[in-house]
Amino acid sequence: MSDGQWWFCLKHMRVEPEQGCPNKDRMGPYPTEQEAAGALQRAADRNKAWEEADADDE
User: Fold this and answer.
1) 23 domain-assigned
2) Listing from the earlier edge strand, what are the strands of the sheet with 6-9?
3) Number of domains present in the structure of the chain
4) Distance (Å, whole) CA 26 – CA 9
5) Enclosing H/E stretch for 29
6) Is the pLDDT of residue 58 over 80?
7) Domain for residue 1, yes or no?
8) 36: in domain
9) What local confidence, expressed as pLDDT, does residue 54 receive?
10) What does the alpha-carbon distance between residue 35 and residue 42 come to, in Å, rounded to a whole number?
11) How far apart, in whole angstroms, are the C-alpha atoms of residue 9 and residue 43?
12) Cβ–Cβ < 8 Å for 35, 15
């Protein structure tokens, strides 16, 4: 199906193979469909960690 390129579409809120929406509307690429499915949670976790690190710096 895909050569290891999976994306999470922010417009449709779903995982897509390489052939899909324009990259400007997607997060990725990810090596697996499962990793692409977790893109939003990973981004939220990273944002929280960065906010906490910024608060520690103040």
Assistant:
1) yes
2) 14-17, 6-9, 26-30
3) 1
4) 4
5) strand 26-30
6) no
7) no
8) yes
9) 83
10) 9
11) 14
12) no
Is 51 inside a domain boundary? yes
Q: How is residue 33 written in tokens?
A: 């469909």
Number of helical (H) and strand (E) elements in the chain, helices listed first: 2, 3
Query: What's the pLDDT score for residue 41?
Result: 97
pLDDT tens for 2-53 read 568 999 999 999 999 999 999 999 999 999 999 999 999 999 999 999 999 9
Q: What 3-state class would DSSP assign to 8? A: strand
pLDDT of residue 3: 65
Question: For residues 28 and 42, what is the distance between their CA atoms, to the nearest angstrom?
Answer: 12
Structural Rg of the chain based on CA atoms: 14
The structure tokens listed for 56 are 């520690």
Expressed as residue numbers, the domain containing 33 is 6-57
